[in-house]
Amino acid sequence: MNTYYAANLLIYAGIDIIACLALNLQFGVSGIVNFSFIVFQAVGAYAAAILSLPPDTANGGFQHYVGGLQLPFPIPWVGGAIAGGLLAIPVGFVVLRKLRSDYQAIALLVLSVIANTVITNADKFLGGAAGLALVPPPLSDRIDPNTENYQYLYIGITLVAVVIAFAVVNRVVNSPYGRSLRAMREREIAAASIGKNPVNLKMTIFIVGGVIAGLSGAILVGFIQIWAPSVWLYPETIILFAAIIVGGRGNNIGAILGALLVPVGFEEVTRLLNSNPNIANLGPPNLISALQWVAIGLLILGFLWFRPQGVRPEPRMVFEGGPD
Amino acid sequence: MNIFVAAFGFGLVSMSVIAIAAVGFTMQFGITNMINLAYGEVMISAAYLAYYMNKAGISIWIGMVAGALFGAVFSFLLNRFIYAPFMRKGTANLGMVIVSLAVSLMIANLLLPIVGYYSVSYQEDAGRLIRIGSIVLTRDQIIVIGIAVVLMLGIHALLTYTRLGKAMRATAANPTLARNCGIPTQRVIDSVWLITGALCGLAGVVAALNADSFAIANGSAFLITILAAAVLGGAGQPYGAMIGAVLIGLITELSAAAWSPEYKEVVAFAILVLVMVLRPQGLLAKRGALAAAG
Amino acid sequence: MRGFERYKFVAALGAMVVLAACGGGGSTGGSGLGSGALLVGVIAPFTGADAALGPAYYAACLAAAPSINNNGGVGGRQVSCQKFDSRGEPADGVPAANAMIAGNSNLMAVVGCTSDEAAAVAPIIDRAHIPMFCMTGQTEFNKTTLKYFHRLVPADIYDAYAMVGSALYGPGHAPYKKAALVFGNDIGSQAFVTPATNAFTKLGGTIAINQPINLAPGTSYRTEVATMLATHPDVILTEALGAAGTYLKEVKTQNGGQMIPFIGTSATIDPTWFKQVSDAIGVNDLVKYYAGVDLGYSFSGPAYDEFITNLNAAASTFADAPKYKQRGSTLHLYDGIIMTALAMNATNSADPTIYNAKIKEIANGTSGATVVTTYKDGVAAIKAGKSIQFVGAGGLNSFDAYNNSVSGYIWVTYDNQGNEVKAGQMTPEQTATIAQAGGI
Q: How many CB atoms within 10 Å of residue A115?
């Protein structure tokens, strides 16, 4: 285990935590089954990328994209977050009707595939299928990104982002907004009868979730320095949903646990299988790699079977002063 | 040759392939409430079964029947051993979607080391070209259109005239009420998985034949088109799925003729987005797609 | 030691001192080759949509290892191969690369890194100072500053020029006048279109249609083919599309059973492509109407013979390995691994910061270098104090300042068994004309 790999895992953990917190807000609290979630992360990544990249004539002009404003940190991250929030407005408008939740889900799933196809084919807009490469990492003009110190720096700024995201999400969940929404989830008619407007509330939460999702994308693109449509295909959303379910829906700690278990834990532990050459070289070359995915599927099924409420179930809120 | 008329002809073939698959998918959703994301993988498994039979010299049409049988049995077993137990445990709808995704991951990756990663083709002479005006189709393509028409009529007959079909519609509308009226829901559900599984398997072989060559990745790619058709027509509505298939099949091919072909799916999906904005429950959905008071 | 032995020992010691003091090749006094096993990492997609790429590179390593190990290893150290699945996308490639480096302090070289993930993993491997041989034609690497990056496959534009050359000057037909360009819209594909268009049109041809097609699996391409046929091209320039058989079969069907001549990129020299397309349109039509371009491999000679022996032997671990016997990427990566081992011998060092630069030198050769074709010969020459140039199974390499190696293109076809057959070659004048017209 060296610094770079450890840093990689920690930073990915931070990104996934932020993403799961956002998804938990949209889904766990607000009840919207946002199967297009990964698009929100993607839009944040693209926004951060075009804000921090030089104009597309740079580096030999081999890629074509809009923007290229070469702005310094933290503007690209803020821009990514805002982009995520902006995307939530039209998407929310389309789906925040009275729709069955799982029907909503497939509609959004199809939307995310549409988005991926459009971006892939629009060559000059965001780099097309090749995406955007050579994205300058944050603060790379101050510290050389190829040093260990930079890794610590990146872990630091990711941690700050995690703390901010957690604080925001906690505030929302415990705010009057959040309480109203939980009331609505449990008893929508009753909530409506005391004058709460569910659609407005849901939209607000949806936008906040989008902002945080966009931030996670900005952090990811700053680290891997490249972003392409292959990174945000629809199964990525489902992996994050699995994380929420495994960790426990509706509560932030559950979201964090889920992020650590599924996208980081399951996916990296199965990669560790490979590190033993006796296992790695068994059978045809695709075998172990394919079995890693089978293992991930089994783990998800196992959790859903044995612990469907998640590792940390949503705590029931009990309030004093009920009817005598 | 008028390219648009030719494209219309190709659209007929596309819509036939999509229709067979989409109707099965949407019936699964409508009656059992499952968004079965493993549908595409069952399709591709059936396609590979037919491929191995075809390599052994068996005709592709027999392979189609075998694919349908395989799809029926495989889907039935999937439900019996995985989906139904989870449902009985009370897993929510969303949880079932995740279950089906886990299953699809497992099927695809269990197949990968067995069938390999490169594309394969059926050995099938598509037959002579038949020209009807500017429409140019091969004999095989016309047969596929015919199969689709027969199946759609068959589904219509099943749902309208048979006891089983009416029981299916009742279960789709209101399972509790259906059970209370004495409809043997468990048997209905089993039949649904068998019938839609057969459609799924058959669709897999047809789609593979239509695509000229296929690999495992085709499964999940095709799933998206099926989802689009189902959503367009109103999820859970078999007739809606047929209409959705017609629209998507035609629009895809016509727009490929009118504009740059790399955008052809985008155009079809754009129509879908429009429909979702204007009529989010889909073209044919009844109130069932709308949540009751939230 | 008895007297006579002691004399021999001292003489040998003295000789070694003298040799070490001599300049001009041979061991440059590195700190020794170390001990323990050595690892070659194969980082590539093994799952996902591009799962077909990884095994070809893995086969290269499986063939290279015995060539080294059976001839004394690297200072006795045995080389082994390990796969690291990038899953075909950069966000998974990054942790794969980091895990590979973190978990293995004995990495001698890395091979693979395709267009799917190279842009993300190459900097990581470079930072760890491990020589890598990447299989990406992406333009961004044409002038890379990464010192440990080596590219043995030419940039895509050279393929494009060779294809235009085939269309204009190729054997067996009059120069084609109208070309249809049918390339996919994914990462690796679009770099062909612009140079091909420029070159072809400036030299008198017309582009009947440029048709970027959506590579989503399961698409049937019927309307695309109809549109393309309506422009009546003489020839189709295309690449190794994912579902290679689909488009071409449709062309044959809609054209009334008559195939149109088509020219493919070097990626079409591939056993799986041959199988898919011959399944789709039949072997006879494939042989008759297809022309390809490839780097000038001879598929013969001592280097190739050793390669093929070890490749066939690798079938015990990886059954499909022998299929890659004519795959350019497999040949080149095989050479890259052997050159790395030779570089280690030549610098007598297991430290990549020392032996990395030697790789390029061994590939290009310095003046007066002894040409060797196998690892065994190379080690012997090094021990004898000579500087060497390695010409391996993939032929001559010539690294430019950016560690890109471009050797001559030839025109090829297939025979009925799927073997590559040389059909002709561009003259240097023709190459220059096209490159000028296309503009590099």
A: 23
